[in-house]
Amino acid sequence: MGWLLLVYLFVNAGCQKETAETVTPQIPEKDHFVSATQVAVIPQNILQTLATSQGYAQFIPQIKYDVAVYNLVYTTTYKGQEQQASGLLVVPQNMTTPAPLLSTQHGTMFLDADAPTNFPDTFSGFELFASTGYVTLIPDYLGYGISKDVFHPYYDQKHSGLVVVDMIKAAKSCAEKQKIKLNNNLFLVGYSEGGYVTMAAQKEIEMHPEHGLKVTAAAEGAGGYDLTAMLAAVTTGQPYGNPSYLAFILQSYNTTYNWNRPLTDFFQEPYASRIPELFNGTNGASKINNSLAKNPTELFNPAFYAELKKPEGEKVLKQALVDNSFLNWVPQSPTRLYHGTADQSVFFQTSQTVYDRFKAAGAPDVALISILGGTHSSSMEPMLLSVIPWIQSLNTGY
């Protein structure tokens, strides 16, 4: 991309933690911040050009600031142990008022090279939020960036929530060290897997006040919030165009929960033998999908597939799907669910179901915005065009 030539790269460090620091913290809360290294400064006019190329030309008047981009390293938890994670911290420059904090969560990734911290090669568009006045976070997630040697805990609710919450804490710590003024507003936005991760972070914050965080509003697009419904769809025997998702979840749970079952328990050959190499971080979604059977009866081990269809079969796996679905929690902060009605990757019904459940359980402020005719790939842009003015309208009271 030609615009990369216009990005001003820097190698000088920003808000590096002093290794000889001896001051006793005033707050007993663990400091998750490790380091933040400035990797780029992007001028306002370049961001306006990027906005046009990304389909957001109507918001050019709101792109008011140059932005500084940092690679943020922080600590989180993986399988009960401390683990370093990474993400981008994008800071608007020369703001005269305190900025809100916005954490943006990306969709499913198979390539290590797609991690946000491989910026500028992985420019996502989320960076544009910073130029409108938000201190913006773009977490890599566990399994990418500095933690790429960990198998990504795909659709694991606890790890998904904590990797965002701990980055928010680390960013607030960094902002304090750098005297970056923040207001009290915290927004969460994500699409696809990022919609699920956003909901997991929202739940983690709302269920655990000890984090000391409060969500101002959350926007979640096309996430697989009800994994039990996904299982029901898979067991109909109908072809599914994204078998990569199914293989990803099974490998994730097999690793994250230390089941350590042979892949032949789940998959037929030749797929069981192919999968480790397909998921080594060098293959994209299309190659993985084209290398796996799209019919579940051909992809899965027949004995495993038969057990999935039995009420009492594969109980441990089914319980994990229940535990990682949003079945018994109701959001208390303003929440918008977005979903394309023609989505064949993550079915629209998952958002409809969770919305109906939230409303029936008394959610105080939740809305479902249907993107008519929208597919999984086409619905993110209209979602963001709707989200931007919504969160701007809520950035008050600080």
Question: Which terms summarize this structure?
Answer:
398 residues; alpha/beta; Rossmann fold; 434 Repressor (Amino-terminal Domain); eleven-stranded mixed sheet; 34% helix; 19% strand; globular; disordered N terminus; Lipase_secreted; triacylglycerol lipase activity; AB_hydrolase_fold; Alpha/beta hydrolase
Would you kindly provide a written description of the structure presented here, covering whatever features stand out?
The protein is α/β, with parallel strands linked by helices and 398 residues long. It has two domains: 2-15 and 27-226 and 330-394, Rossmann fold (3-Layer(aba) Sandwich); 231-323, 434 Repressor (Amino-terminal Domain), CATH 1.10.260. 34% of the residues lie in helices and 19% in strands. It is built from 13 helices and eleven strands. The chain has helices at residues 44-53, 128-131, 157-178, 193-207, 227-234, 243-256, 271-278, 285-291, 296-299, 302-309, 315-323, 348-360, 380-394, and strands spanning 8-9, 13-14, 33-42, 67-78, 81-92, 99-105, 135-139, 182-191, 217-221, 335-340, 366-371. Strands 1, 2, 3, 4, 5, 6, 7, 8, 9, 10 and 11 form an eleven-stranded mixed β-sheet that branches. Helix 3 crosses helix 4 (193-207). The longest helix has 22 residues, at 157-178. It is globular.
CATH fold label of the largest domain: Rossmann fold
CATH superfamily of the largest domain: Alpha/Beta hydrolase fold, catalytic domain
- In CATH, the architecture of the largest domain is 3-Layer(aba) Sandwich
Q: Summarize the amount of helix as a percent range.
A: 25-40%
What is the count of distinct domains?
2
* SSE order: EEEHEEEHEHEHEHHHHHHHEHEH
Shape: globular
N-to-C CA distance: 39 Å
Number of helices: 13
Computed over alpha carbons, the radius of gyration is: 21 Å
Low-confidence runs: 1-14, 16-27
**Top-tier CATH class of the largest domain:** Alpha Beta
Share of residues in strands: 15-25%
For the sheet with most strands, the description reads: 11 strands, mixed
